Amino acid sequence: xxxxxxxxxxxxxxxxxxxxxxxxxxxxxxxxxxxxxxxxxxxxxxxxxxxxxxxxxxxxxxxxxxxxxxxxxxxxxxxxxxxxxxxxxxxxxxxxxxxxxxxxxxxxxxxxxxxxxxxxxxxxxxxxxxxxxxxxxxxxxxxxxxxxxxxxxxxxxxxxxxxxxxxxxxxxxxxxxxxxxxxxxxxxxxxxxxxxxxxxxxxxxxxxxxxxxxxxxxxxxxxxxxxxxxxxxxxxxxxxxxxxxxxxxxxxxxxxxxxxxxxxxxxxxxxxxxxxxxxxxxxxxxxxxxxxxxxxxxxxxxxxxxxxxxxxxxxxxxxxxxxxxxxxxxxxxx
Length: 334
What we know:
12 strands, 22% strand, DUF2167 domain-containing protein, transmembrane helix, signal, 11 helices, membrane, globular, transmembrane
């Protein structure tokens, strides 16, 4: 029933249109989930990363449990896609059911990432390699009946701030059969033992707003004493790649050239793209199926939802559509 209600709301655009959502009465269980959320403002601790975010009054931060509720129960993601998510940031006062952007916070214990190549990295060459590497993957996906995505270029070329030890970049993506290009904005803050990641997915018309938010995060995200980049000591674990490798997806330029950026990005942006299932209702299914090759009507059972109290019965995953309403045919099985 929960999936049926969510699918019905998506079909009628309620989740993508905040004004309409306010006019219509939400299902009681959806309203109950919204009421249970506890957004935080000001300085918030990211304990798993040994870091803090100073968000002031401009943003709402949802801790891990609330972020999971939003990503899984409200935005329709599989529970696995919320694994490792430490929090979710949204504009202050914005409902998770509105069309406002969301930024997912994660941390990866990569080891120390050297910034020695930051000034010398050729990001235009890196982008060319990403585009070239994605061509073959797109051909394969389209041949199997799945939509492709073209990397159009940098929406913001990678920029490293040696003062905050953070790097920001953004890519413009063009998904098949969509009129508005997608914006994938990344912020990475380097620490002694790993990287704090804030990833935003939106559309290109929102570039200015997302750019402002990303820059704010960069100046207000910091590791705690002992975990800071400057606390590195000889003998600490190292990542084995630098800033260019981080931008390429954490696997290095060589892998980016060989596998293509879409394959490399899977590890980093799959949860975020799946988290956009409501924000981009018109084509979120295409985003999900492209990156994970997932069947659109996958079913899963109680063990997937035990923590959330779901009933012991199979539930359609992001594919439930009321009878009598036409939907796009499923792509052929890969």
